[in-house]
Fold:
Amino acid sequence: MSNSPTDTPIIDPGGIVVTFVQTFMAVTQTPAVVVALIYGGRQYFYSYGSADLATNTPAGELTVFELASVTKVFTATLTAYELGDLSQPVTKYLPGSYVPNVGLSKVTLLRLLTHTSGMPDQIPGQPGE
Structure:
């Protein structure tokens, strides 16, 4: 028996998504959630709630959400997926016009994507030292 993707039965994940999202929305009082996923090579979009409570505009595939600091998690995940190795210095991916900088060559993609500078938690001579 082959393990190709076509041998795997494709199920509609909608039942799992709706159960999870409805519970999440009820517990957290979240007004809208849109879920996009790829499963078995197919794209699925599930929209729940209102994108604008004043006008009761339903949330949908094109609804814009403010992700704030959660954005870095998505960026890091997609970068890791695309590049594979986050331990490389960021300078490896800069254009040829980049002027070498010793300090910047120590910054890895992982540190950049997780907003960790590598600086010490405490600066010598400062309170809390």
User: Anything to note?
Assistant: The first helix runs from residue 14 to 28. The chain has a mean pLDDT of 78. The two ends are 63 Å apart (CA to CA). The chain is about 25% helix and 15% strand.
